[in-house]
Amino acid sequence: MSLNKLNREISWLAFNERVLQEAEDVRVPLVERMRFLGIFSNNLDEFFRVRVATVRRLIRLFRKDPKDKLRESPQMIMNQIHEIVLRQQLRFNRIYESIIDELEAENIFIINETELDAEQAVFVRDYFLNKVEPLLVPLMVRKQKKFPHLKEDSIYLFVAFWKSSVPKSKQYSLLEVPRGSLSRFLVLPEKGDKRFIIYLDDVIRMNLSRVYYIFDYDHIESFIIKITRDAELDLDDDVVRGFYDKMRKGIERRKEGEPVRFIYDENMPVEYVSFLLNKLNLIEEENIIPGGRYHNFKDFMKFPNFNRKDLVYPKYPPIKHLDLERSRTILELIAWKDVLLHYPYQSFDYVIDMLREAAINPHIRSISITIYRLAKDSKIINALVNAAKNGKQVTVIIELQARFDEAANLSWAKVLTDEGVRLVLGVSGLKIHSKLILIEGKFKKKPIQYVHVGTGNFHEGTANVYSDISLLTSDPRITKEVARVFEYIEKPYLPHRFDHLMVSPTFTRSKLVEFIDREISNARKGKKAWIKLKLNSLVDDDMVDKLYEAGKAGVQIDLIVRGICSLIPGEPGLSENIRAISIVDKYLEHTRIYMFCNDGENKIYISSADLMTRNMDYRIEVAAPIYNRELRREIRDFMAIQFSDDTKARIFDRQMSNTYVNGGDKKIRSQVAFYEYLASKHKQ
Questions:
Q1: Which of 58, 267, 521, 632 stands the most exposed, by the fewest C-beta atoms within 10 Å?
Q2: Can you tell me the distance from the alpha carbon of 359 to that of 364, in angstroms, rounded to the nearest whole number?
Q3: Is 2 within the bounds of a domain?
Q4: How confident is the model at residue 256 (pLDDT cuts 50, 70, 90)?
Q5: Among 37-46, 94-103, 419-428, whose mean pLDDT is lowest?
């Protein structure tokens, strides 16, 4: 790896450590800290399923061809990953134990099956018999039989039992802990002002004698294990079969993906660990990680709060958009002026209402939309189906390869087709990641196009926790080119030109280079020159090198990067003029914004694309310019508030130390400050 760039996998682990910092931060409400442990765990699961799985494949490739020109030994990367993950696991365990102690100080107790009193034991036994036992399927594990397939998202109790008088009588079994239909946490009856929780795992442990009653034994013990599998979606090359069917088959094969991580209770006897590793065909290159008594901490994202408002973040009601509230209809307002929406500070319902309005408006002829991820019970889909039933021409371009949402999107594709919606499955070789809506019709008897360009998905659920921006406009400079994007998706073989939008995979990279070169030129002429970017990830080598070049030329560069950042800021002789921070807080920072000084005539864009090779070269992405003077000021204010954060902002450096920004006496927490900014602006 170049000394001038950080490894993306190691940088990602540094990002997840920032999540762990939130769990450790005593300023964060107690139940929210537990939920940050869940987010950390969920992130790590996905990291192993995707990134570690990729490194494993590189290791195998490197062994076959050691002369392959890789910048860094994949085995070296894997060793670093393993070392960091183990270190983070120890920190995780310390934080968890600390939170348990603090919960007890609040009279909330997490107890196991050995700590139940008689009354609680009866309650747990009844719950087990009525709710849990019908869902259990004990699998007997015998040496001569094929080992059962372990599911990716599940945890298992590995159970061993034997008769002490018969040394060779030991038997092994696996019990999958039910998920989905049952909560991981069973809240027990209160005792005075004390609250009690027991894990579902321990509910089962308490009742193992009930599960294995037919066997003659006098010793039984159990330990939790978990497997993580390669999530690569392999699609076969059978050109006869349709893409829809290929996706369905690929999703089924993913369930059989190779293990990339095995976690087990560190108190499990070596005999059992060796048995499992042998049966799972796990060897040294796999990540074998000893853990605690419990796994699948991602369930902590749903940790109960006992209606204690002091243990969770205060709820801020969505700020009503002053213009939208005053306007008779949303489309009528957009016909006159541009609208900017900030989630979750403002409600995503405005977008849903816009589609509902279009669905029944007699002057609307057609609706087109690109979909990447949707909520489980999507109001977006309901609005589109309603539009189709009302005779509108509805075209939905749905991305079937949205990672981990493939199955859901396949189901939505069928729903839409059954309802008569025109479905387009995208462009071969490209993921469609843009967030576009195009509504066409007439306003005051003249043709008009209304457009939505956003940074986040059309997902009501994530819009409550992801920080994103939507632009609603009828500006023909933008609407005509959004219509051209839809044409490009359906007819990529035709030439297309974009003068206002940045569109990947053809124009984004070249346009960004053009803007950066302009700042370099202005800096060399002694003019004011700066670049401000807000991103999720910055890892594209050429873009990193271009930013280094700009910084060396005297361009002041300020970056907000939530996750992975290969660029190293503040390095003498390399990046003295580059500053980079990361903000991790209550909401997931997801907005992408590009800002360029442009000799005082600022260029401001919102985008669906990060500065990653995949976003610029292998996806259909759209960045839209902000032309409205008032909205440009609003975005500049938003960025200024973010850069002033000295409460939740961390500094990027070569060591990836995640040091907090040290500000003045008046502490600024950008997410709270921006909420207050919008509330003041839209005060009625």
A1: 267
A2: 8
A3: no
A4: low
A5: 419-428
Question: Distance (Å, rounded) from C-alpha 529 to C-alpha 599?
Answer: 7
Identify whether 3 is part of a domain.
no
CA distance 84 to 14: 9
- 295 in catalytic set: no
**Which position has the higher pLDDT, 258 or 35?**
35
**Residue 127: C-alpha distances to residues 175, 178, 202, 207 (Å):** 17, 14, 12, 11
Side-chain-side CA neighbours of 635 within 13 Å: the count stands at 29
- Assigned token pair, 47: 């990291």
User: Which pLDDT tens digit goes with each residue over 541-588?
Assistant: 999 999 999 999 999 999 999 999 999 999 999 999 999 999 999 999
The count of structural domains within the chain is 3
Q: Are 643 and 591 contained in the same domain?
A: yes
Residue 177 DSSP code: P
In a domain, residue 43? The reply is yes
User: Alpha carbon of 652 to those of 442, 522, 558, 648: distances in Å?
Assistant: 50, 27, 11, 13
Residue type (1 letter), 280: L
List CB contacts of 336: < 8 A, sequence separation 6 or more.
Answer: none
Locate all alpha helices (DSSP H) within 295-449, ordered by sequence.
Answer: 322-326, 330-336, 349-360, 379-389, 406-418
Structure tokens at 635: 């975005």
Rounded to whole angstroms, the Cα distance separating 398 from 384 reads: 13
DSSP 187-255: EEEEETTEEEEEEHHHHHHHTHHHHTTTS--SEEEEEEEEEEE---------SSS-HHHHHHHHHHHHT
Range of the domain at 539: 502-681
497 lies in some domain: no
Active site residue: 295, 433, 459, 590, which one? Answer: 433
pLDDT tens digits for range 514-530: 999 999 999 999 999 99
- Per-residue confidence band for 247, with pLDDT thresholds at 50, 70 and 90: very low
Which residue, chain included where needed, has tokens 């843009």? 434
More confident residue, 405 or 386: 386
Q: What are phi and psi of 118, to 5 degrees?
A: -60, -45
